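Look over what follows to help learners.
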Amino acid sequence: MNDEQLLRYSRHVLLEDIDVLGQEKLLQSHALVIGVGGLGSAVAPYLAAAGIGKISLVDHDQVELTNLQRQIMHQQNSIGQNKAASGKSFLQKLNPSIEINAIERKADDKLLDQLLPTVNIVLDCTDNFTTRQLINRLCVKHHVPLVSGSALRFDGQISVFDPRNSDSPCYACIFSPEEQFEEVNCASMGIFSPLVGIIGAMQAAQALQVLIGFGEPLVGRMLLWNARNTQIDEIRIGRNPECIVCGQAH
């Protein structure tokens, strides 16, 4: 790190669990944020501020007026812009010393097969079951750790799936791709504005822990946050040997 970086990240360097070596790991890391809406708007700024050397933002959607209630990377003059492009503009102002890559398209097999070999961690900030299953499957395939978060109405959840760890479950161990789930979203169900900030900030914290290698990330555990009564619950989750994505037969 140069002198400017030592000063910028000095509060991290002071932490024994991070120090200079940990901060250098962040500067050399590439994080992929899929979904630049409510969760992504909380995840990406903390990753950028913390000094992740390269951040790729993936989103095919455009900013709408209804997004501004919670998607804090986007502003009034961002309406009509692609969310990844809008997010890139915000992050470049926040930390001009890092690389921001805006990918204005929907995440699919081809795109993720190209990106995942180049990244150190994936943060799933999407809002639908099909895309989450796709991201999980490709993360397992490429052995890339995944920080998954979701938020709806007053309820949020977060977990870490690390295919490099033989004991770690994957997303499909909990929610099988073969099951049928009714898709619900913010447009029809509503969402409490600060909830995405809380879950997104937790996702960013988990990503930093995994990248640096300190503490106990939420591998094999799922954290449930109820914003209505400020209650936190934790569920222990194990790897399913019969899982159709990460099970031994597959």
Residues 193-212 form the longest helix (20 residues). The two ends are 43 Å apart (CA to CA). Strands lie at 30-34, 54-58, 99-103, 121-124, 146-152, 155-161, 221-226, 231-236. The mean pLDDT is 95.
